[in-house]
Amino acid sequence: MQVRQRLKINSVISVVTAFIILLILSLALYRLNNANGKGKIAGEIITSALERVALKNDYISNSNERAKEQWFAKHEEIGRLLKSASERFLEPEDIKALAEMLKDNESIGKIFSGIVKNREKAGSHAYSADLSRVIETRLLSRLNMRVYEFVTDGRQLLEASRRARDSAFRLAGAGIIIVFVILTATTVINSWIMGRTITDRIRRLRDGAMVIGGGNLDHKIDVKGDDEFAELSDAFDVMTAKLRGLYSDLENEIKERKNVEKAIVALNRDIAARNSELVAANRELEGFSYSVSHDLRAPLRHMSGFVKLLEQRLGDYTDVQISHYMEAISGASKKMGTLIDDLLAFSRIARVEMRKGKISFNTLVKAVVGDIQHETKGRDIIWDIDALPDVYGDQSMLSLVLANLISNAVKYTSIRPRAEIRIGYKEDQEEFIFFVKDNGAGFDMKYANKLFGVFQRLHTQTEFEGTGIGLANVQRIIARHGGRVWAEAAVGQGAAFYFTLPKIKET
Amino acid sequence: MRPLLIRIAVVVSALAISACFPACGRTDNKPAGPPEKLTIAYNAPPFTVLADIAQAQGYFRSEGLEVTPLFYSSGKAALDELLEGKADFATVAETPIMFAIMNGQKISIVAGIQSSDRNAAIVARKDRGISTARDLKAKKIGVNLGTNGEFFMDTFLAIHGMARQDVTIVDLKPEEIPKALVSGYIDAASAWSPFLGQAQKELGDKGVTFYDEDIYIETSNVVATQASIRKNPARVTKLLRALLKAEEFVMHHPSEAQKIVADFRHMQLDLLGGMWANNTFSVTLDQSLLLSLEDESQWAITNRLTHATKIPNYLNFIYLGGLTSVKPKAVRIIR
What we know:
heterodimer, A: about 500 residues, alpha+beta, Helix Hairpins, 3 domains, 7 strands, B: about 325 residues, alpha/beta, D-Maltodextrin-Binding Protein, domain 2, 2 domains, 5-stranded mixed beta sheet, 12 strands, disordered N terminus
């Protein structure tokens, strides 16, 4: 049986006991009230009977009309009391006594009426006086007998009511004692059994828990039965089994993680090696491009030198065609020189060590704009420059970025009678987003991916001059600062170039 | 747990059984030694119902009494047997007892065993012009003198404005009354059951009966000489115990009791059944018995039916010890 059920039984017994006690008390109270009611009526009957005797004596002594009237009134009252008593006294003995009393009372009424009648007609007979006396003596004697019987039976009713009252008290007392004894016995036995069972089972659970706590997850707490302890034991065993499973899973996971860690270490080692290789290859590539650029300059100088020598040899000989060829060779070699310089500069940007510091972007922009004043002479340009924040970076490199973007804006707005160039910025928590917008020629966004490639151009040389290395430099510098570069434009509607710089504080 | 509970139950049961044995023994107590012999002079039923039942049902025997019954038609005759020493106890109405005590007999009532206010009556012949109580005047009334029949007649006449002198009284034995009435020897009779019933039955429509429950309560009592009571009070106790058993039996088995009495006394069952309801069969000693004895004494003195001139103290002629010892509640005499 479950502990909960045992506790429930105890509770039910307590409730039932309380109910039974209440019932017994109610019954006892009811019976006590009934007994008191009976006692009251029996007492009233006896008292009234005695009063009636006194009234009879009163009448006999002086034939008093008042006494006679009162006697009959009292007699009627006794009749009513007897009727009332017959509704309350229901025990066979009491019913019998009441029947006797009713009979006696009836006789008493008749006999007293006989006495009254006898007195009232005394003297109407020859022996009237003597006869009347004899009759009265006879009747009085019979009346007394009936009165004695009546009072004796009345006393029996009174005693019956006392017995009923005593019985009610006994019922209440004995009933409550018996119920208490049963309650106590049941509760003690139930509690004792429960206590013994609980103690034994708790000890087994504790021992089992200690074994499991000691690390033996294969241990089983074997508490049999259908109570909560058996359920707890089962739950313990289920928990132990699950722990065992979890422990095994954990061991496997640890093994797996160790393997992964080993793989990561190997991978990192591989990446580091590849990185070294990459750095070496990059360095090699830069060295190669530098060497190539540098080495290309020698034949280029030769070509320029030979073109000058050829001009000197020709002297005054002028031939339009030859002059054109000579100018073409000279121009081509000059351009090639410019290209090689740009390439070298581009290469240098990637290699040169950055010297980062706090830079006033306001000042830097103003300086750059000032530097290109000579290119804007005669132009109608409206500058719209925001107050710009301080940034952290390499000043010369960022100056190059601004120079490239601003000179591009000046260059591509040359087709407008009034150029509008706006320089501003936005920011979020992580970075500043600078932009340079113009109302220049713009470009088709479908070629935007080519914008930042080396020597990539979206316009012909005749439209706008340039080598196509400037934006490649911008992208490389911004990338070295940890930022991004992009552009938005539309053909004939101007362009906007954006670049970001992280908000890195000087350390 | 279960064995422990069983052990407790066994111990409790053993204790209960061991406690019960002495009590059980008491209830089935058989008197040691041979039964005590005694003679009881009976009058006629219904006066003797309890004694008849005690005899027929063997209650006397179970109390260690071997009773020899002597049957008489009146209690007066039964009392005479007692006074003559031929019986140890007699069952008799209060009137013969009163006369005996007034005449100086040392007897005591040990218990009343019957009472009725409708067992005595005047039965009369209509053809003699009797239809009301007043018509009894100057008529010939048969009665067994010295019995409650005489007292009832006298009282009845007085209540209806007549004196003894207004009628002619004929002394008859109780069993002679029915025949005397039917034959017309008498005009009316003051009788009691069973002779009253016989007379009524034999007269049929020719008869008329005058009852008066208010003027008289007839009682039947067990009496013994004071000497015998003093000599053997235990015998009285045994007798009373047997009578009380009979009372219980009559109370719980009235129909069976009627049949037993009818068989025992060779009576017609319907005759006995007809009078049964008018009687109370209980073993008592009531205060009203004292008053009745005194009233009848006064009547006897007034009518010079006795030589005595003083009402005796009847408390001295009632033996309270016996009934008090076996059923104190039944003793309702003021003490």
